[in-house]
Amino acid sequence: MILRGLLFITFMLLTACGSGRNYAPVEELENGVSVDEKSYVVSRGETLFSIAWSRNIDFKQLASTNRINPPYTIYPGQVLQLDGRGKSSAAGVKNAAAGGAKGSPAKRKSSTEKTASATTAKPRSSMPALDKNQYPYRWQWPAKGKLLRGYSARGAVHKGIDLQGKLGEPVYAANSGIVVYAGGGLKGYGNLLIVKHNAYYLSAYGHNSELLVKEGQKVKSGQQIAKIGDTGTNEVKLHFEIRRDGKPIDPLKLLPRK
C-alpha cells in the first residue's frame, strides 16, 4: 500500500510539471471574494464594469451602492462596497496593504480626492453617454466559426458560448454600444472586451489575440473589434457572453439562427 501511494504521488507530480500553462476555465469563475467579504480595492486597469462583471453584479447596483454617477469614474486604491451598504473610499488602502487595517469611509469629497492624489492615482477614462432610447436589437454573431460549446446555467456552469476560429480571424461587435473594458485583468478570459449596449445589456468577447478598440470608444454592430486568439485558454476560440442587469443569459436566445 505504501509503495502504491508513493507511485501515485510521483505520477501526480510529474503530471503537474509537464502540464505547461495553467488556465482558469470561464465556467469555474465565481465571485472573487468570500460571502463574508464586503469590500473590494480597485486595482490599476480595472473599471466599474469589469469589477461588476467579475462579481456577477449589475453595474448600476454597484454604482448606486457606492454613490458613483455616470461616467462611473473610479480610482486605483478606491474601496468599493459590494454588499449594498456603506460608501466607497480611497482612504486606508496603504494601511490595509501594509498591516490589514481597515480604512474609514470618506466623509467628504475633498478627502477622497486628496487621498487619490497622494497615491498618484489617475482616474479611469470617462465614458460617453448612450442614447437613452437606444435598445439592443438585431443582434449578430460575433464570429463566423461554428459553435463549440453552449451556455449552461446548471452543472458545469458556462456563462456564455464558445465559437471556433483560427488565430487572427475577426471578432465583431454583436451590437452597437460603448467599450467599457479592454484588457487582460479578468482571470480566465484572456484579452477581454466588454461592451455596454444600454442600461440593461452588456456583451463580452474573451481570449482575443489582439484588441482593436479602446475603452470609451463607440462601436457599431458588425464592426471588427478584436482578433480571435487563445489568451487565457488552451485553444483558439472566442468566448462570448451577454448579460442583462448583471446576470448571464443564453446568447443563442438573442442571436439569429445560422
Describe this structure in words.
The chain is of the alpha+beta class and 258 residues long. The chain folds into two domains: 28-118, LysM domain (Membrane-bound Lytic Murein Transglycosylase D, Chain A); 147-253, Glucose Permease (Domain IIA). The protein is 18% helix and 22% strand. The protein contains five helices and 13 strands. The chain has helices spanning 2-17, 48-54, 59-65, 93-99, 109-118; strands at residues 39-41, 79-81, 147-149, 161-164, 170-172, 177-183, 191-196, 201-208, 210-211, 218-219, 224-227, 237-244, 247-249. Strands 3, 4, 6, 7, 8, 10, 12 and 13 form an eight-stranded antiparallel β-sheet that branches. The chain has a three-stranded antiparallel β-sheet with strand order 5-11-9, with no helix packed on it. Strands 1-2 form a two-stranded antiparallel ribbon. The longest helix has 16 residues, at 2-17. The chain is globular, with a radius of gyration of 20 Å. Residues 6-36 and 88-127 have low confidence and may be disordered.
Strand content: 15-25%
Q: Return Rg in Å.
A: 20 Å
Tally of DSSP helical segments: 5
Helix content: 10-25%
Could you describe the largest sheet, including whether it forms a barrel? 8 strands, antiparallel
Which stretches are low in confidence, meaning pLDDT under 50 for 5 or more residues running?
A: 6-36, 88-127
Ends distance: 56 Å
Tell me the name of the CATH class of the largest domain.
Answer: Mainly Beta
Q: Count structural domains.
A: 2
Q: What's the count of strands?
A: 13
Structural class label: alpha+beta
Going by CATH, the homologous superfamily of the largest domain would be Glucose Permease (Domain IIA)
